[in-house]
Write a structure and sequence with these properties.
Length: 213
Amino acid sequence: MEPNTGNLNALLLLGLAWSGYFILHSWLASNRLKAFVQRRRPGLYARYRVIYNLLAVILLIPPLALLWGSATPSVWRWQGGWQWLSYGLTGLALLGFWYTSRHYDMKEFLGLGAASTSGFHLSPVHRYVRHPWYGFGLLLLWSQNMDQARLTVVIMASLYLWLGSRLEDRKLVMEFGPLYDSYRRRVPGIIPWPGKSISRGEAESLMGGQPLN
Protein backbone atom coordinates (compact mmCIF):
# COMPACT_ATOMS: atom_id res chain seq x y z
CA MET A 1 0.00 0.00 0.00
CA GLU A 2 1.34 3.41 -0.97
CA PRO A 3 1.91 5.76 2.01
CA ASN A 4 -0.34 8.80 2.12
CA THR A 5 2.20 11.54 1.38
CA GLY A 6 -0.34 14.28 2.11
CA ASN A 7 -0.98 12.95 5.62
CA LEU A 8 2.73 12.54 6.30
CA ASN A 9 3.45 16.10 5.21
CA ALA A 10 0.57 17.43 7.30
CA LEU A 11 1.78 15.53 10.38
CA LEU A 12 5.35 16.72 9.84
CA LEU A 13 4.25 20.34 9.55
CA LEU A 14 2.07 19.93 12.63
CA GLY A 15 4.95 18.42 14.56
CA LEU A 16 7.28 21.25 13.60
CA ALA A 17 4.71 23.90 14.52
CA TRP A 18 4.03 22.43 17.95
CA SER A 19 7.72 21.76 18.59
CA GLY A 20 8.40 25.43 17.88
CA TYR A 21 5.63 26.48 20.26
CA PHE A 22 6.86 24.25 23.07
CA ILE A 23 10.45 25.47 22.64
CA LEU A 24 9.39 29.13 22.69
CA HIS A 25 7.09 28.52 25.65
CA SER A 26 9.93 26.92 27.65
CA TRP A 27 12.38 29.64 26.70
CA LEU A 28 10.00 32.40 27.77
CA ALA A 29 9.49 30.64 31.12
CA SER A 30 13.21 30.07 31.75
CA ASN A 31 14.91 31.64 34.74
CA ARG A 32 17.80 32.70 32.51
CA LEU A 33 15.56 34.88 30.32
CA LYS A 34 13.75 36.27 33.37
CA ALA A 35 17.06 37.21 34.97
CA PHE A 36 18.20 38.87 31.74
CA VAL A 37 15.02 40.94 31.50
CA GLN A 38 15.25 41.83 35.18
CA ARG A 39 18.80 43.15 34.70
CA ARG A 40 18.24 45.00 31.43
CA ARG A 41 14.58 46.08 31.64
CA PRO A 42 13.43 46.25 35.30
CA GLY A 43 10.25 48.09 34.33
CA LEU A 44 9.35 45.41 31.81
CA TYR A 45 10.17 42.66 34.30
CA ALA A 46 7.45 43.95 36.64
CA ARG A 47 4.93 43.04 33.90
CA TYR A 48 6.74 39.91 32.74
CA ARG A 49 4.10 37.43 33.94
CA VAL A 50 1.20 39.09 32.14
CA ILE A 51 3.28 39.51 28.96
CA TYR A 52 4.32 35.86 29.16
CA ASN A 53 0.70 34.73 29.45
CA LEU A 54 -0.40 36.92 26.53
CA LEU A 55 2.43 35.60 24.34
CA ALA A 56 1.59 32.01 25.32
CA VAL A 57 -1.97 32.53 24.02
CA ILE A 58 -1.00 34.45 20.86
CA LEU A 59 1.74 31.99 19.88
CA LEU A 60 -0.69 29.12 20.37
CA ILE A 61 -2.99 30.36 17.58
CA PRO A 62 -0.94 29.17 14.54
CA PRO A 63 -0.36 25.55 15.73
CA LEU A 64 -3.98 25.31 16.86
CA ALA A 65 -5.18 26.57 13.47
CA LEU A 66 -3.06 23.89 11.79
CA LEU A 67 -4.54 21.23 14.06
CA TRP A 68 -8.14 22.32 13.57
CA GLY A 69 -7.61 22.59 9.81
CA SER A 70 -6.13 19.10 9.48
CA ALA A 71 -8.11 16.19 8.04
CA THR A 72 -6.40 12.92 8.92
CA PRO A 73 -7.81 9.41 9.46
CA SER A 74 -9.46 8.58 12.78
CA VAL A 75 -7.49 6.56 15.33
CA TRP A 76 -10.32 6.06 17.83
CA ARG A 77 -13.69 7.46 18.77
CA TRP A 78 -15.48 7.14 22.08
CA GLN A 79 -18.84 5.53 21.24
CA GLY A 80 -21.82 4.12 23.13
CA GLY A 81 -21.19 3.76 26.84
CA TRP A 82 -17.53 4.67 26.32
CA GLN A 83 -18.64 8.12 25.18
CA TRP A 84 -20.11 8.74 28.63
CA LEU A 85 -16.79 7.70 30.13
CA SER A 86 -15.13 10.28 27.89
CA TYR A 87 -17.56 12.95 29.10
CA GLY A 88 -16.95 11.92 32.70
CA LEU A 89 -13.17 12.09 32.38
CA THR A 90 -13.37 15.48 30.65
CA GLY A 91 -15.70 16.76 33.36
CA LEU A 92 -13.40 15.41 36.08
CA ALA A 93 -10.43 17.23 34.53
CA LEU A 94 -12.33 20.53 34.29
CA LEU A 95 -13.63 20.14 37.85
CA GLY A 96 -10.08 19.46 39.02
CA PHE A 97 -8.82 22.63 37.34
CA TRP A 98 -11.60 24.65 38.97
CA TYR A 99 -11.13 23.13 42.43
CA THR A 100 -7.35 23.53 42.56
CA SER A 101 -7.54 27.07 41.14
CA ARG A 102 -9.38 28.08 44.33
CA HIS A 103 -6.16 27.34 46.23
CA TYR A 104 -3.93 29.40 43.93
CA ASP A 105 -3.49 33.15 43.80
CA MET A 106 -4.92 33.46 40.30
CA LYS A 107 -4.15 37.19 40.10
CA GLU A 108 -0.49 36.39 40.65
CA PHE A 109 -0.68 33.46 38.20
CA LEU A 110 -2.12 35.70 35.48
CA GLY A 111 0.35 38.47 36.24
CA LEU A 112 -2.33 40.82 37.52
CA GLY A 113 -1.10 40.99 41.10
CA ALA A 114 2.12 41.18 43.09
CA ALA A 115 4.14 38.02 43.62
CA SER A 116 3.15 36.19 46.77
CA THR A 117 5.57 35.99 49.68
CA SER A 118 3.50 33.48 51.67
CA GLY A 119 6.03 30.66 51.19
CA PHE A 120 5.35 27.02 50.45
CA HIS A 121 1.65 26.31 49.90
CA LEU A 122 -0.23 23.07 49.12
CA SER A 123 -3.82 22.53 48.04
CA PRO A 124 -5.60 19.33 49.23
CA VAL A 125 -4.91 17.74 45.82
CA HIS A 126 -1.18 18.37 46.29
CA ARG A 127 -1.20 15.72 48.98
CA TYR A 128 -1.53 13.15 46.18
CA VAL A 129 0.35 14.70 43.22
CA ARG A 130 2.94 17.47 43.05
CA HIS A 131 1.64 18.92 39.76
CA PRO A 132 -2.15 18.44 39.63
CA TRP A 133 -2.71 20.81 36.68
CA TYR A 134 -0.32 18.73 34.58
CA GLY A 135 -2.26 15.61 35.52
CA PHE A 136 -5.63 17.18 34.76
CA GLY A 137 -4.19 18.41 31.46
CA LEU A 138 -3.21 14.85 30.51
CA LEU A 139 -6.65 13.57 31.48
CA LEU A 140 -8.29 16.25 29.33
CA LEU A 141 -6.03 15.51 26.35
CA TRP A 142 -6.45 11.73 26.33
CA SER A 143 -10.22 11.65 26.96
CA GLN A 144 -11.03 13.10 23.50
CA ASN A 145 -11.66 11.47 20.12
CA MET A 146 -8.42 11.02 18.21
CA ASP A 147 -7.36 11.27 14.61
CA GLN A 148 -3.74 11.02 13.51
CA ALA A 149 -3.15 14.77 13.80
CA ARG A 150 -4.62 15.05 17.29
CA LEU A 151 -2.76 11.95 18.46
CA THR A 152 0.51 13.44 17.22
CA VAL A 153 -0.11 16.65 19.16
CA VAL A 154 -1.35 14.83 22.27
CA ILE A 155 1.76 12.65 22.41
CA MET A 156 3.99 15.70 22.01
CA ALA A 157 2.02 17.67 24.62
CA SER A 158 2.17 14.73 27.05
CA LEU A 159 5.96 14.55 26.72
CA TYR A 160 6.16 18.32 27.15
CA LEU A 161 4.06 18.19 30.32
CA TRP A 162 6.24 15.42 31.74
CA LEU A 163 9.40 17.39 30.93
CA GLY A 164 7.81 20.56 32.29
CA SER A 165 7.06 18.82 35.58
CA ARG A 166 10.70 17.79 35.90
CA LEU A 167 11.91 21.33 35.21
CA GLU A 168 9.36 22.71 37.67
CA ASP A 169 10.66 20.32 40.32
CA ARG A 170 14.18 21.58 39.72
CA LYS A 171 13.07 25.21 40.14
CA LEU A 172 11.15 24.42 43.32
CA VAL A 173 14.07 22.54 44.86
CA MET A 174 16.22 25.60 44.18
CA GLU A 175 13.59 27.84 45.78
CA PHE A 176 12.57 25.76 48.80
CA GLY A 177 15.53 23.40 49.26
CA PRO A 178 15.09 20.44 51.67
CA LEU A 179 11.45 21.39 52.25
CA TYR A 180 10.42 20.65 48.67
CA ASP A 181 12.93 17.83 48.29
CA SER A 182 11.34 15.90 51.18
CA TYR A 183 7.89 16.51 49.64
CA ARG A 184 9.11 15.33 46.22
CA ARG A 185 10.37 12.05 47.67
CA ARG A 186 6.96 11.23 49.18
CA VAL A 187 4.45 12.39 46.54
CA PRO A 188 4.29 11.38 42.82
CA GLY A 189 4.65 14.04 40.16
CA ILE A 190 1.62 13.85 37.88
CA ILE A 191 -0.27 10.55 38.33
CA PRO A 192 -1.55 9.51 41.80
CA TRP A 193 -0.22 6.20 43.09
CA PRO A 194 -1.57 4.00 45.93
CA GLY A 195 0.43 4.49 49.12
CA LYS A 196 2.25 7.55 47.74
CA SER A 197 0.68 10.53 49.47
CA ILE A 198 0.98 12.62 52.60
CA SER A 199 -1.51 13.25 55.38
CA ARG A 200 -3.17 16.56 56.13
CA GLY A 201 -0.92 16.96 59.16
CA GLU A 202 2.19 16.38 57.05
CA ALA A 203 0.98 18.94 54.50
CA GLU A 204 0.49 21.46 57.31
CA SER A 205 4.00 20.73 58.59
CA LEU A 206 5.43 21.42 55.13
CA MET A 207 3.52 24.68 54.85
CA GLY A 208 4.86 25.58 58.28
CA GLY A 209 8.41 25.17 57.01
CA GLN A 210 9.13 21.73 58.47
CA PRO A 211 10.57 19.12 56.03
CA LEU A 212 9.18 15.60 56.15
CA ASN A 213 11.16 12.76 57.68
